[in-house]
């Protein structure tokens, strides 16, 4: 892997052939693929010194993986020959083809790949920003808090545990409910589940987008005695009083519920600077970047592509989706660089590894049309399996670090 140049050594003057904003799953995958295709003069704009494998945070919160296995130094995943500018992008001028950086510099590009991920809007629910990370409130959505989720689950012997799901698009739509199943299965094994009221709050009319998996999840929730509140949303939290407000959107009623454990998933949106940029899709209330859903090219700027959580695509935002988007962005970018129209198409593939117990999982894979697209066609995808859980825990991380981030898979 890379012997990455020190950020201080990397000049940002001059026009860069390709600028990639964001060195997460999407940005690194595309940069690695472009390097493999022989592209030189790639600049990666990434402020963080840590790269996270977020899909394991659910298992960190469930006490099944240490947080340390989910992080690597950012420099170790940046492909050889890619220039790292360790700054934050703060604005894009798509007409001038420049990105403004946090230090005030402007970086000029010929081609731009937008992959800065999604923003967690903790202030989107009154009281949540103050409550999270304190007392009995946690969230697997940040590495600071994910280990705390397991501390709270372990300590709980009775009372009310509430697991929430925001009403906005979010990364990994299954994560808010997976942690409820991991917790409930732990309490079942400890023989304390009967004394715990478990409430799962979901804003949608069903537990999952694809009806066949939704039916399986209804049975999983029933098996643990979980009270599922559909079409509902947490609209306020009082951390001091350990109370939250639940709004039922089907009839507008509001209910105050006391809790002894709260796992909260915040509302999410494009980063504010992306929302304010000319690349934002005017049809996206959360300001995600406009992209053709098949070619991933910006509709008004031919030299701009986007992928990953920041792209406004009608599919679930997951790392698995990124794995299928990265080759399409790379191939289409090469087409455009060579004066051809984009020739590759993304079909909306996404995958949600639905952990339903401490040793079982459903692998939900589907496309834009919600058709199942199983990677293991001989296995019934609607059956919970131990092998799938083991695949998520032990199989997928090496595939991610060694295959996806190096552009091999
Ligand atoms: P990220 O990987 O988040 O990377 C964004 C990068 O952009 C970061 O490195 C960030 O530092 C950088 N950045 C931010 N702002 C700027 C800026 N202004 N300028 C430059 N760089 C910037 N996916 C699955 O496939 N399966 C799962 O089981 C799964 N479970 C999940 C569980 C949890 C709890 C969470 C939180 C996520 C889960 N995901 C899962 C989702 C998956 O992690 C994301 O979809 C994936 O990481 C998206 O990749 P990305 O590159 O778009 O964003």
Provide structural commentary:
- The protein has ten helices and 21 strands.
- With 409 residues, it is of the alpha/beta class.
- It has two domains: 7-118 and 270-346, 3-Layer(bba) Sandwich (FAD/NAD(P)-binding domain); 121-267, FAD/NAD(P)-binding domain, CATH 3.50.50.60.
- The strands form six sheets. Strands 1, 2, 5, 6, 7, 8 and 19 form a seven-stranded mixed beta sheet that branches. The chain has a five-stranded parallel beta sheet with strand order 10-17-11-12-13, covered by helices on one side.
- A hairpin with a 2-residue loop joins strand 20 and strand 21.
- Helix 1 (25-36) crosses helix 9.
- It starts with 14 loop residues before the first strand and ends in a 5-residue tail after the last helix.
- The chain binds flavin-adenine dinucleotide.
- Flavin-adenine dinucleotide binds next to helix 1, helix 2, helix 9 and strand 20.
């Amino acid at each position: 892997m890379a012997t990455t140049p020190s950020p201080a050594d990397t000049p940002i003057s001059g026009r860069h052939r390709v600028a990639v904003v964001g060195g997460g799953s999407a940005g690194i995958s595309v940069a690695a693929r472009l390097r493999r295709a022989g592209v030189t003069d790639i600049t990666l704009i990434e402020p963080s010194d840590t790269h996270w494998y977020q899909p394991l945070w659910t298992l960190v919160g469930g006490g099944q993986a240490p947080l340390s296995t989910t992080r690597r130094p950012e420099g170790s995943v940046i492909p050889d020959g890619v220039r790292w500018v360790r700054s934050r992008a703060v604005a894009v001028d798509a007409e001038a083809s420049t990105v403004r950086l946090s230090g005030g510099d402007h970086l000029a590009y010929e081609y731009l790949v937008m992959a800065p991920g999604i923003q967690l809007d903790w202030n989107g629910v009154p009281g949540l920003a103050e409550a999270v990370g304190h007392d009995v409130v946690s969230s697997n959505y940040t590495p600071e808090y994910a280990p705390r989720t397991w501390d709270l689950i372990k300590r709980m012997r009775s009372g009310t545990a509430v697991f929430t799901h925001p009403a906005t698009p979010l990364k990994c739509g299954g994560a808010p409910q997976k942690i409820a199943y991991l917790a409930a299965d732990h309490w079942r094994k400890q023989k304390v589940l009967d004394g715990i009221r478990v409430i799962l709050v979901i804003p949608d009319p069903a537990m999952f987008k694809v009806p066949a998996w939704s039916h399986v999840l209804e049975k999983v929730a029933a098996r643990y005695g979980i009270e599922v509140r559909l079409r509902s949303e947490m609209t306020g939290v009082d951390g001091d009083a350990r109370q939250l407000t639940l709004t039922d959107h089907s009839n507008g009623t509001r209910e105050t519920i006391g809790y002894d454990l709260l796992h909260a998933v915040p509302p999410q949106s494009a980063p504010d600077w992306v929302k304010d940029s000319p690349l934002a899709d005017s049809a996206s209330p959360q300001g995600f970047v406009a992209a053709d859903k098949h070619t991933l090219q910006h509709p008004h700027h031919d030299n701009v592509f986007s992928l990953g959580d920041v792209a406004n695509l009608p599919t679930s935002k997951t790392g698995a989706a990124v794995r299928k988007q990265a080759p399409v962005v790379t191939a289409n970018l090469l087409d455009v660089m060579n004066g051809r129209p984009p020739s590759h198409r993304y079909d909306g593939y996404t995958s949600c590894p639905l952990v339903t117990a401490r040793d079982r999982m459903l692998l939900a894979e589907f496309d834009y049309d919600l058709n199942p697209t199983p990677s293991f066609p001989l296995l019934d995808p609607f059956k919970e399996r131990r092998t799938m859980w083991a695949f998520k825990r032990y199989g997928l991380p090496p595939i991610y670090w060694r295959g996806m981030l190096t552009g091999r898979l």
